[in-house]
Amino acid sequence: SGFLLGVLSVLACLVSTMQACPPSCHCHGGDLQHVICDNAGLKKIPKVPEQTRLLNLQKNNFPILPTNGFRDMKKLVSLHLQSSRIKEISTGAFRGLKSLVYLYLTDNQISVIKPGAFEDLSDLTYLYLDKNKIPDLSKGLLSPLVNLFILHLGSNKIRELKPGVFSGAKDLRWLFLSDNSLTNLLPGAMEDVENLAVLHLDKNQLSSYPVNAMSKLRVLEELKLSQNPIEVIPDNAFQSFGRYLQTLHLDNMKLKKFADNAFAGVTTMKTAHLENNRLTQLPRNFPFDKMEMLTISQNPWHCNCQLAPLRKWLKGNRTRAEDTCSTPAQYRGQPIRDTPALRSCKLPTKRSRKGSRH
């Protein structure tokens, strides 16, 4: 009879677990740890088994994420809320989710994130807030996210980043802010995220290079500034992270020139995208040494001896780019690598280059 009671209690447990899978959802994985409720017409956050580790609620209808809406899901690691018509995230919306690592809020209509919205998310590592209508981020909003590693904020309506906006998120390494309305980065905007490795600021409204904000960054490896109306890259633009910078995107801007020492301190750059600008020259200290990929087409290059290092690089690399001179007039349309304009130029020697370094 003891054996029978044991069997019955196991069956009772199984039945209660099966019953715990919410209607309109399906559950699978050992112990039904994965609860899938995508595109189920839900208007309220469902009750799920307490052992749930992954909850997929995308393509539902939750205009407001309420306070304590997920409080009993203490073992949740991954939460999918993409395309769920969310407009507002309440204070304490994710309270209790201390084990959550992945939070997906892509493709909603979020315009309001109340202070304290992200409290308790001390294990959160990946946060996707792209494709929303977020106008700004309040100071301290991200403070609870002490383990945040990747933050996606692309395709929103962010106009400025206030100093202290990233305080607390000291481990942030990848920050995506593409396709927003940023006109400026205030000097203190990046002071809490000096360990960033990847920063995408393309498709914004930056009209000058934010040299003060950028000088806080120490180990940046990839910087994307494409499609901003910046005309000049100033001296020492990349110096604070010059030993780490490997990939630079400055294409499709209105870029006219680099200051003479724009690339001071840059020693390891492998890839630079400079196409579709208004450049006529490259600065004398342009870092060709480690360069593997360089795109320079659709610029009005002026073919004089200052471009001789570029010609040497083009000849030594099997690039297919047909980059041509615009001026002087007699060389117009001639490929930079073959034009007679550069044939008799003397290349600067290493020694003279070293002497000119500061």
Automatic annotation (TrEMBL):
Give the InterPro entries listed for this entry: Cys-rich_flank_reg_C, Leu-rich_rpt, Leu-rich_rpt_typical-subtyp, LRR_dom_sf, LRRNT, SLRP
Output the Pfam families linked to this UniProt entry: LRR_8 (PF13855), LRRNT (PF01462)
User: Per the database record, which ranges form the LRRCT domain?
Assistant: 299-346
Residue ranges annotated for the LRRNT domain, each copy included: 20-54
Q: Which GO terms describe its cellular component?
A: extracellular space
Region forming the signal peptide? 1-20
Alphabetized Gene3D superfamilies for the sequence? Ribonuclease Inhibitor
Q: Which UniProt keywords apply?
A: Disulfide bond, Extracellular matrix, Glycoprotein, Leucine-rich repeat, Repeat, Secreted, Signal
Where it sits in the cell: the answer is:
Secreted, Extracellular space, Extracellular matrix
- Taxonomically, the superkingdom here is Eukaryota
Q: Which family does it belong to?
A: Belongs to the small leucine-rich proteoglycan (SLRP) family. SLRP class IV subfamily.
Name of the protein in question: CHAD protein
Gene that produces this protein: Chad
